[in-house]
Amino acid sequence: xxxxxxxxxxxxxxxxxxxxxxxxxxxxxxxxxxxxxxxxxxxxxxxxxxxxxxxxxxxxxxxxxxxxxxxxxxxxxxxxxxxxxxxxxxxxxxxxxxxxxxxxxxxxxxxxxxxxxxxxxxxxxxxxxxxxxxxxxxxxxxxxxxxxxxxxxxxxxxxxxxxxxxxxxxxxxxxxxxxxxxxxxxxxxxxxxxxxxxxxxxxxxxxxxxxxxxxxxxxxxxxxxxxxxxxxxxxxxxxxxxxxxxxxxxxxxxxxxxxxxxxxxxxxxxxxxxxxxxxxxxxxxxxxxxxxxxxxxxxxxxxxxxxxxxxxxxxxxxxxxxxxxxxxxxxxxxxxxxxxxxxxxxxxxxxxxxxxxxxxxxxxxxxxxxxxxxxxxxxxxxxxxxxxxxxxxxxxxxx
Length: 399
Fold this sequence. Notes:
The protein has helices at about 110-115, 125-130, 150-165, 180-195, 205-225, 230-240, 290-305, 375-390, 395-399; strands spanning about 5, 15-20, 30, 35-40, 45-50, 55, 65-70, 70-75, 95, 195-205, 250-255, 255-260, 265-270, 275-280, 315-320, 340-345, 350-355, 355-370. By secondary structure, the protein is of the alpha+beta class. The protein folds into three domains: about 5-95, CATH 2.40.50.100; about 110-165, E3-binding domain (Dihydrolipoamide Transferase); about 195-399, Chloramphenicol acetyltransferase-like domain (Chloramphenicol Acetyltransferase), CATH 3.30.559.10. Strands 10, 13, 14, 15, 16, 17 and 18 form a seven-stranded mixed β-sheet that branches. A five-stranded antiparallel β-sheet has the order 5-4-2-7-9, with no helix packed on it. Helix 6 crosses helix 7 (about 290-305) and helix 6 (about 230-240) crosses helix 8 (about 375-390).
């Protein structure tokens, strides 16, 4: 029996996915688990494995097509078998401006799309339109069949804002964003404008953290062949502390607070055209050495463009460390539906008061961004207090 190859949903709020490339040619034999195609999300380009054995047939999308999640884009068939015939296949939309439409897609009728925009709109887009006061009749629909997507609402809002504040003459040197950079811009804008952020800041003496790294690095580097970083130590400590603060490890979904059973830490990794949060699953149950190995492998795959779907999905809390860029402190934007993100600055010698006397200590600044719908000020402060205590005495949680 033929196996359907569909555009996967890699995130809870994902409506479409962009096909980057097929890794197998039509008619070529494919084994279950082999990398079959590459899909681009707003976080990274990920490799999608084949759902079964067979020969690739009935390919309906090509590189550059944007396809609704769940749509069949090809089939895996047995020798001599033909792909099933679909009565009304859902067409994909070409994302690149000016590119010719795929042969299976008829060009949309803009007037008709606007006339029926009320009926063809995703629930998320309808909610955003109401929140931002966007007139749906003025929104350009980019979804298949004329559906208005959340990104269309944000683009319409941005267009109105720019037209009101930007001079009519715009320079020709504007940078063309990749889809990853553009979608990241849309998501951070959405987060900043819809999530009630507030920030709690603490400075902490990193003397004990430095000592723990020096004490543990040789053994871990020898046994696991991985360089132990301060980020590895922080990820481990944060995961242990999160297990004691379930509200901080929760999400705001459908108007309610949803605690997560697992602690899955996302580590922000810089790539050429944005930032990707690679996820270490069940971080609170992993050892420091395991976390160091996973963080290294994740960073390598993400930077090389070979991330897997599981590499970027399911984070319940994110850490963004800019210490390696000599940044003292910063505030980070929450990645919904997560309720918090921790921004970490560099470790630098500063003069501080120690028992009433000035002393030089390696200090580090931590800034917790929280969603006030989920975490109030007291909960954020208590979590950060416990994290500071863990950094001051890391051996209690690292051994």
